[in-house]
Amino acid sequence: MTVTELGFWQWLSYNSEVISLWLSLAMLVVWAIYLQLILFQFRATRRSSILITRAAGRGMRSRCLITNMSNLPIYVTSLIGKLRIGKREIELPLTDLQEQPEDLGSDPRSRMAQGSLSTGEFLNIGHFEDIIRRMLEANNETEIQVTDVEQVELTVVAFHGWDNLPVGAFRQFKIDLCTDEAAKIAPMNLVTEQITRRHHRRQLWRKLATNL
Predict the structure, then answer these.
(1) Region at 64 (left for phi over 0; alpha for psi -120 to 50; beta for the rest)
(2) Is residue 173 within 8 Å of 186, Cβ to Cβ?
(3) Which of 7, 43, 88, 198 reaches 20 to 30 Å from 119, CA-CA?
(4) Beta-sheet strand order (sheet of 50-55)
């Protein structure tokens, strides 16, 4: 064994406690990061993700889709619409606007705007024009046309996992009137806003109770 090697082993022996302490701290950091990743993944699997999108065109006859992008199934229990006309607001539950026939077709969830959705499944709740028209008729707005509406906001109320409080999502759309083209509907924000904070979910619960 050379002198250099002997010096190294002596240094290692003299500093074994310090080295052991640093190795323990390094292992502690690694485990802390590992546990954070597990916790993040656990929260991600329990977090709801609901999309409200426009499909099949940009006009008023384009369709509105509600898609479940959560890792767990959700049960859509209510869909609330809000219209803005100047300084006025009209808010109504879309699930209760009209009586449904006995034969709802192959997928009654879309006709009723409620039901259970597995990951990746969606509800087709109809044309934006029809949604707005039904809301105006339900509120007895005989003098207001669909194109008089400036904005429409859609809020989805759903139950997710084992929590008693509902989760939700909302998105706002604006109606653009062009002189040489038909009216178009466009989302006002890039993504659907998720309602996941507990106090916001309590507010959603109270809104759901009000609209029963």
Answers:
(1) beta
(2) yes
(3) 198
(4) 50-55, 63-68, 122-127
d(CA 116, CA 185): 28
- Residue 174 tokens read as 């604006």
Output phi, psi for 84, to 5 deg. -115, 120
pLDDT in tens, 107-142: 656 666 677 888 888 888 888 988 888 888 888 887
91: Cβ–Cβ under 8 A, 6 or more apart, which residues?
A: 80, 81, 82, 83
Residue in the structure block whose two tokens are 């024009």: 129
Beta strands in the chain (DSSP E): 50-55, 63-68, 74-85, 88-93, 115-117, 122-127, 151-160, 167-176, 184-187, 193-195
CA distance 83 to 172: 10
Residue type, 182: A
Q: Do 64 and 76 form a contact (C-beta atoms < 8 A)?
A: no
**pLDDT, tens digit, 9 for 90 and up, residues 166-193:** 888 999 999 887 655 678 888 998 889 9
Is a pLDDT exceeding 90 seen at residue 32? no
Residue 49 CB partners (closer than 8 Å, separation 6+): 68, 69, 70, 194
Looking at residue 27, the DSSP 8-state letter turns out to be H
What's the confidence (pLDDT) of residue 45?
61
**φ and ψ at residue 157, rounded to 5 degrees:** -115, 125
